[in-house]
């Protein structure tokens, strides 16, 4: 069992990487599908409420007088409105003599067709045939102060006047109605008066002509000037002022049409509204005095029709339909509207099929039907609104297609990251694992290393550096082991002989210089210390590393000054402070450190230049700087000069041991030693821990 687990453990890193990326990809896909499902559920839940609000908006509009007008005139469109086709009002008649009543009636019903230059016109009939066979016309126009017709003037063209033309059932009626003021017009109240209707004649002379008795026309002109309409201001002229500026006038007409009145008495129950109402044409023109031109013409292009049933289509969403018919069901439906399909972006068929298959708590039936009735003076109308909740799938699919590239980009990034790691790391780890599985056994058996060539896995990244190091190590390890054995045996024999031959003369010298005041005793003691460290060791490096020091308090300021004075090297100067500064150190090894560093500084300095020893300190460390002027340490050796056997001149008898000894002793005393190049030489910095007094 354990071998199997160990074998599986060797694949753990690869399985971890691949499993993590697979889980991440599955999480992204699951997140996207979950969001789609939640959005579909939310859309289904909101659809029925939205459809109910749409029905309420439609019913509210149809209950308004403007909606009643649209129901009574379902075939009215922009062309019919601009040609003066009368509409059936939701009222039995209009009180055309009262400005406020007639203006409120036409504005509430929404029958006014808007024209440029503040013009408007509503041509209509009442919904009650017994109110009389009249056609009503009401609207606005803009002009200067109205000029009245002078009593006794047989020419009617000297005043503002209306020209009305009605075409219906093969008959044409023409009226010309000049303006006649009424008494009591104030300056700021505007003008009010009437349009007296005459049957229009071909000539200008209306001598003996009598007004049409049933023709009624009223006009009310505002006392304030119109502002903000550049066309009207240009028409009024540059000299227009408060007396001559353009004003807005509202007029109301009742047109007597004999053919309609006669039709009311042809049958017991007249047909109303007239079935041929869509064939009626009424034209209204407002003429300026003289030959000044036409101020308003209902046949002018650019008319904006009022609300119609077609406008309800804007409330419908794609997949929804609206049907309106009479409640009795005898007649065909009045209008059938469908939600206009918007120009949606192209959706993905795959996402569309996925959204259709996502399970949601749907409505009882996907197709929802809502009904209601609207009452009008001419009967009741049945409203049927249909909607399909599944239509939200198309919109959701379009939105999902638009944002699917985010999910695709995330999956692509995950796949790319996995591919890079798989090729760049996992594959190389697998190869490295296979080639090094039996490496430890081969090394212990001292053979078989040739089969573990890692040269093809070398590179500049971490794995490449590891493979390069292993390859070089495997190539050199065998010869290094053999060479090390030979060298260790030779050095051990050499140090045994040297120690034996030196210790006896040193002991005799120490007896000759046994006085504590004798300066030679210090140097003989240092020589004995060095021999004791090296004697009996397999190699100098092992000897230095295994040596033990007696760390005590040392005045580093006095010590450095003494070293500079007795170094035996010319031009060694101490420039630091002379006040006592205690550090933790062993005097003999510390003196060896100074000696090795000073020898290196003397060997590489420019002749004639001094070696400067400086001392600085902070709260925890005292730093001794030894600086010389000379060539810099090569960059490739700067980080290795403290290693054993590293020397700039190995062929000249240098063993590369002095700086190694210095670093070893400094480390045992809890200090540090570093070297760095300066602009004019090299500085060695020795750091020792301070003893606080």
SSE map:
Elements (H helix, E strand, L loop, with lengths): L1 H8 L2 H52 L1 H8 L5 H5 L4 E2 L10 H11 L3 E3 L3 E7 L8 E10 L17 E8 L2 E11 L9 E5 L2 E2 L16 E6 L8 H7 L10 E10 L1 H6 L17 E7 L6 E4 L23 E6 L8 E4 L10 H9 L9 E10 L2 E10 L3 H45 L2 H6 L17 H51 L7 H15 L5 H7 L5 E4 H10 L6 E3 L7 E4 L1 H18 L6 E7 L3 E9 L5 H4 L19 H11 L3 E6 L3 E9 L4
Parallel strand pairs: 1-3, 18-20
Antiparallel strand pairs: 2-3, 3-4, 4-10, 5-6, 5-11, 6-7, 6-8, 7-9, 9-10, 11-12, 13-14, 13-16, 15-16, 17-19, 20-21, 21-23, 22-23
Helix pairs in contact: 2-3, 2-9, 8-9, 11-12, 15-17
Structural summary, described in words:
The chain is α+β, with helices and mostly antiparallel strands. Among the domains are: 79-304, Immunoglobulin-like; 548-693, Histidine kinase-like ATPase, C-terminal domain (Heat Shock Protein 90). The protein contains 17 helices and 23 strands. It has helices at 2-9, 12-63, 65-72, 78-82, 99-109, 230-236, 258-263, 349-357, 392-436, 439-444, 462-512, 520-534, 540-546, 556-565, 587-604, 635-638, 658-668, and strands spanning 87-88, 113-115, 119-125, 134-143, 161-168, 171-181, 191-195, 198-199, 216-221, 247-256, 281-287, 294-297, 321-326, 335-338, 367-376, 379-388, 552-555, 572-574, 582-585, 611-617, 621-629, 672-677, 681-689. The strands form 4 sheets. Strands 1, 2, 3, 4, 5, 6, 7, 8, 9, 10, 11 and 12 form a 12-stranded mixed beta sheet that branches. It has a 5-stranded mixed beta sheet with strand order 18-20-21-23-22, with helices on one face. A 4-stranded antiparallel beta sheet has the order 14-13-16-15. Helix 11 (462-512) packs across helix 12 (520-534). The protein is elongated, with a radius of gyration of 57 Å. The relative contact order is 0.08. The model is unreliable at 230-239 (pLDDT under 50).
